[in-house]
Write a structure and sequence with these properties.
single chain; alpha/beta; Rossmann fold; six-stranded parallel beta sheet; 11 helices; 48% helix
Length: 231
């Protein structure tokens, strides 16, 4: 079976996909591709392709989805299946680019914990029994990755290319998935992606926000199994 490459979101690592890795690892080879070493989406995608299997299925959430689109743009012949979760195919708006600057300055001054606590993670999640556990996991991931990764990833997002033309060229089985209460990447972004990728499947996960892999893992696991054609 084709290996699965997982791309985490900004300031996230393998823990973002812990439930999916646990559910699927006995049935498919899984590779976690970090997106931490470069400050452009293009260079991040090149690094993934250097280390990925020759052909693979690929899933990316949020920034991971943004990088996944660029991976597909650079090497469409190597991607057999594509999943785009809680993400956005458009270039970053100028107002969002500008909002990143004070965040970067705070983080440089030692304020990563405060930036993650006050400005980012509370906006991500739905209310539910797992909310605090997920927030705690997000904080641990971010602090483990550190300030330099925050700045590089922020710069990569600021400079990212629009990928709408790339999505028009996608011709592999594609899952578009989002949490119903995702305020960071709302439903219209996902409807746009579905309209651009002929034959794609769009699934909305109830009771989840921006991180459905952790908020509603059973529902995401079921969607992944269908997408990967795993019984």
């Amino acid at each position: 079976m084709t290996p699965l490459v997982l791309l985490p979101g900004m300031m996230c690592d393998a823990r973002l996909y812990r439930p999916q890795i646990a559910a699927l690892s006995g049935r498919i080879a899984i590779h976690l591709a970090p997106i931490t070493e470069h400050d452009t989406v293009e260079a991040l995608a090149e690094g993934i392709l250097k280390n990925a299997p020759s052909r693979f299925a690929m899933a990316g959430l949020s920034m991971g989805g943004i990088v996944a689109m660029e991976v597909y743009r650079q090497a469409p012949d190597r991607v057999e299946r594509l999943a785009l979760l809680d993400t956005n195919p458009r270039a970053e708006l100028d107002e969002v680019k500008q909002r990143r600057e004070p965040q970067i300055e705070k983080v440089r001054a030692g304020g990563l914990h405060d930036v993650m606590r006050d400005e980012l993670k509370p906006n991500y999640l739905a209310n539910g029994p797992l909310r605090q556990d997920v927030l705690d996991t997000c904080m641990k991931m971010a602090l483990d990755l550190g300030a330099d990764v925050f700045e590089r990833q922020s710069r990569a997002l600021q400079k990212r290319p629009d990928q709408q033309e790339t999505l028009k060229s996608v011709n592999v089985p594609t899952l578009i998935l989002m949490g119903r209460e995702d305020r960071l990447c709302p439903v219209d972004r996902h409807e746009l992606m579905q309209s651009l990728i002929e034959g794609s499947t769009f699934e909305i996960i109830e009771g989840a926000g921006h991180l459905p892999t952790l908020e509603q893992p059973d529902a995401v696991n079921a969607a992944f199994k269908t997408w990967l054609d795993i019984q």
